[in-house]
């Protein structure tokens, strides 16, 4: 449920995944902002020197700590160390917005110059971060903005992933595994959350517009990962000859492959999003999972920290910075794990 928790974090800005896209969808930020690749954010040697001599401090106020957010945190810690910025606090709200508010109030006692955070509930988050904003703390957010906060005034930027690129790569990976033709089951996140909505829409648009010999023959919305097994059984009962199934992230993918194993089905290929050891292990062992798409998780933290430093210098930072997506197959798990998490893959995958 931890990876699922991260996805339940944003206000609605996307069209429902069940609606067909007449035009190519584009990645947009929490307030509809155009994405800017993170590589464009740089600090000169003189700017780095000024930061390292400034005696600045930072607090990391997380929504929840698990594999993904730990990798983001590590990227931020490494960049802050490079910049001579001392981390004075790190908190884990356990995906509780009230606790996150308390965490912000607690770390403010340490007078941080910077706070990096992923807001749990954007509609109410002004009450969480207002005390830090009013104290002049440089706020950098991951994935979500705060409703009512103004870019460049109340916060520095939002750092996330290129969501269209993720869904697009997932479609390409599944199409390749199917030989460019066949029948697909499309399992989408049936809730108004931009992170998943945009990825799902990108997958669907790519299949429908770039693969004429692939047909999405069944669609089912998913609200909880626990529903995935029942959804998969329903899809396969209606279409026993499915060649592929798309799942919106790794936890529901595990439910799908459980059903496929129970049915002795080694034909139907599955693609999913976000690195997860059990899903990757199935792929490495030649199971049903044919591809996993992940973001450059560690770099989200690196550039969030760098953006905060730029904010201290009074530099203008674009409102929505994005990292690239990685398409990972059985032969590239080790390399993909390193690129995404900046760490060695678990021993089971090596």
Keywords:
single chain, 350 residues, alpha/beta, Rossmann fold, 7-stranded parallel sheet, 6-stranded mixed sheet, 12 helices, 40% helix, 20% strand
Describe this structure in words.
With 350 residues, the protein is of the alpha/beta class. It has 2 domains: 2-24 and 163-295 and 328-349, Response regulator (Rossmann fold, 3-Layer(aba) Sandwich), CATH 3.40.50; 36-161 and 297-323, Response regulator (Rossmann fold), CATH 3.40.50. It has helices spanning 2-7, 45-52, 67-82, 97-108, 126-134, 163-177, 194-210, 228-238, 250-262, 277-284, 297-312, 333-341; strands at 36-37, 57-62, 86-92, 114-117, 138-142, 157-161, 182-189, 214-222, 244-246, 269-273, 289-295, 320-323, 325-328. The chain has a 7-stranded parallel beta sheet, sandwiched between helices. It has a 6-stranded mixed beta sheet with strand order 8-7-9-10-11-13, with helices on both faces. Helix 10 (277-284) links the parallel strand 10 (269-273) and strand 11 (289-295). Helix 3 crosses helix 11 and helix 6 crosses helix 7. The two termini are 26 Å apart. The model is unreliable at 9-20 (pLDDT under 50).
């Amino acid at each position: 449920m931890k990876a699922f928790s991260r996805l339940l974090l944003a206000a609605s800005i996307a069209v429902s995944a069940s609606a067909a896209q007449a035009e190519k969808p584009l990645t947009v930020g929490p307030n509809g902002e155009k994405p800017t690749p993170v590589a464009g954010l740089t600090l000169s040697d003189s700017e780095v020197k000024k930061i390292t001599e400034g005696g600045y401090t930072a607090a990391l106020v997380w929504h929840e700590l698990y594999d993904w957010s730990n990798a983001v945190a590590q990227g931020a810690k490494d960049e802050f160390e490079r910049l001579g910025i001392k981390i004075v606090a790190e908190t884990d709200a356990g995906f509780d917005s009230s606790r996150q508010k308390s965490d912000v109030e607690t770390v403010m006692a340490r007078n941080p110059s910077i706070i990096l955070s992923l807001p749990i509930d954007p509609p109410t988050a002004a009450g969480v971060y207002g005390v830090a904003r009013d104290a002049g703390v440089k706020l950098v957010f991951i994935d979500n903005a705060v409703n009512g906060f103004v870019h460049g005034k109340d916060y520095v930027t939002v750092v996330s992933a290129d969501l269209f690129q993720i869904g697009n790569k997932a479609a390409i990976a599944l199409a390749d595994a199917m030989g460019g033709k066949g029948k697909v089951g499309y399992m989408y996140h049936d809730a108004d959350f931009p992170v998943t909505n945009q990825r799902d829409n990108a997958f669907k648009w790519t299949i429908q517009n770039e693969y004429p010999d692939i047909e999405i023959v069944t669609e089912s919305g998913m609200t909880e990962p626990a529903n995935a097994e029942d959804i998969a059984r329903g899809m396969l009962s209606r279409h026993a000859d499915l060649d592929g199934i798309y799942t919106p992230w790794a936890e529901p993918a595990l439910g799908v492959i459980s059903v496929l194993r129970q049915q002795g089905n080694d034909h139907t290929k599955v693609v999913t999003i976000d690195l997860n050891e059990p899903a990757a292990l199935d792929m490495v062992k030649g199971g049903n999972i044919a591809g996993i798409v992940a973001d450059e998780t560690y770099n989200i933290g690196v550039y969030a920290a760098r953006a905060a430093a730029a904010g201290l210098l009074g530099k203008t930072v674009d409102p929505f910075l994005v990292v690239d997506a990685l398409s990972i197959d059985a032969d590239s798990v080790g390399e993909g794990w390193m690129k995404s998490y900046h760490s060695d893959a678990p021993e089971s995958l090596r």
